[in-house]
Automatic annotation (TrEMBL), chain A:
Record-annotated ABC transporter domain positions: 28-263
InterPro entries tied to this protein: AAA+_ATPase, ABC_transporter-like_ATP-bd, ABC_transporter-like_CS, Metal_Ion_Import_ABC, P-loop_NTPase
SMART domains: AAA
Stored PANTHER family: METAL TRANSPORT SYSTEM ATP-BINDING PROTEIN TM_0124-RELATED (PTHR42734)
Keyword Nucleotide-binding: yes
Protein name per its UniProtKB record: Metal ABC transporter ATP-binding protein
Family: Belongs to the ABC transporter superfamily.
ATP-binding is among the record's keywords: yes
GO molecular function: ATP binding; ATP hydrolysis activity
Keywords for the protein's UniProt record, in alphabetical order: ATP-binding, Nucleotide-binding, Transport
TrEMBL record, chain B:
Native species: Cohnella thailandensis
A Gene Ontology term for the protein's cellular component: ATP-binding cassette (ABC) transporter complex
Topology in the lipid bilayer: Multi-pass membrane protein
Record GO biological process: response to zinc ion; transmembrane transport
Record's protein name: Metal ABC transporter permease
Family membership: Belongs to the ABC-3 integral membrane protein family.
Amino acid sequence: MISTAPTATDAPIETGVLASSSCHREIVSLEDVSYSYGAQQVLDKVSFVVRERDFIGLIGSNGAGKTTLLRMIVGLLKPTSGEIKLFGTPMSKFKDWQLIGYVPQRNHFNPLFPATVREVVLSGLYGRRKLLKRITKEDHLRAEDALNTLKIRELAEKRIGELSGGQQQRVFLARALINNPKLLILDEPMSGIDTETQNNFFNLLLHMHKKHNITFLMVSHDMEMVRSYLGEIPRAKSGKLSFHVRHSHDLEDCGETDLLHSLRKEG
Amino acid sequence: MELLSAEFFQRALIGGALIAITSPLLGLFLVLRRLAMIGDTLAHVSIAGVALGFLINVYPVAVGLAFAILASFGIEVLRRRYRSFAELSIAIIMSGGIGLASLLFTVGKGYNLDVNSYLFGSIYTLNNADILIIAIITVIVLAVVIALRKELFLLTFDEDAASVSGLPVRYFNILISIMTALVISASIKIVGALLVSALLMIPAACSLVLSKSFRQSIILVILIGEVAVVCGLWMAGIWNLAPGGTVVLLLIAILLASLVMTRRARV
């Protein structure tokens, strides 16, 4: 089999350029990243590289620094020392935040917030990129797409708090996917959801991973589940954290795809 | 009907109707961000500024506004120091404001300083300059909220996601603080410092149980604010009651009705 994609190199990637079709670009790189709250060292010199099309499960016990690490990667916390690069660009210069979809911990939001599912999904499009811009017809169509793809279309006009945990999780996934992100970051997506729903959700993620050019970074305290889906042996360990990785080789072409459109085509 | 032709009553209606747009609107954002008490705090600090304005013979509302803005920055600073005790910052600034106000009131005893009119409002003494200032503040606040409604929604719903999407969260927080200070200093003369937070918070409290979507709650808070202020002033005028107090009691009546209407909903 002849792959049309050029061979992977470790050469640094230009800022935010996605034209390259190499499937092994560095999406996130951590170099000697440490973090401490006051005198308490939470993370000590963590180094790790997330490559394109990886599905990373980051596991560790409570207090191992999982969420801290995630919050540093999305720029909510600054490392005490060390460097983080996103898509090859140092954090401080990174601007293309729409490349990153973020699904925060569900218990993080106020379930009684007066907002409909549709409003929450649409809000994924707001941000610096669209500051002061009106919501266009196209935006509404994308929201519709995201709702259909995640099978929550019939819930669109419901208040977010009325939904079950699993349904809420789909809403947040839809919100993260509406921007067609290259990297999807999920913080404890399975907490407070029954096992069957967890499995459905995980299979949905794996399907996206297999068929689409999207990289996953997921934090979980559920070691069993991560191991069973992503492999027993971690690719790397650092302190109490372990990184379980499954890399997808299924795609021959790493070019651009519109995730929502192609997901919908698949039904 | 005689009342309607009285100029002081017309001014009261205009000023009240304007404040009934901006106060509940900002209050909704504050309540949803769990900052319900900030209105009270800024109002009390603002009172200290008003008193100082009287003593040094500078337009009191302007000095009150300056104090409110300073206080909102003070709250932010303290909130950073006492990260897990955010409510402390509000309590500290509030007691500081009351302390300073009471001190200035005693100093100003000989200056014909009418304490009551600022604690309980004196909507019938609004002059044209007051109306102009309230109108300008209404236009500013409305323009900002309409222009940035998508971003304000995102920030209010999920500050982390807002930050990850590249929204300059810090500037937005400062913007909200300044707008709150503006609205509070404008509404002190209308409902009084002790009652300012009623007009900020009670419409939001009603909409939390009544509305399904964010859009709906924005419309609803303004509607409730208008009904309470216009009817309240009317009733106060006819039966010769305290206008600020009548408005607040009407608001509470609307809240009770909302709670009874939606008995089963838990917020």
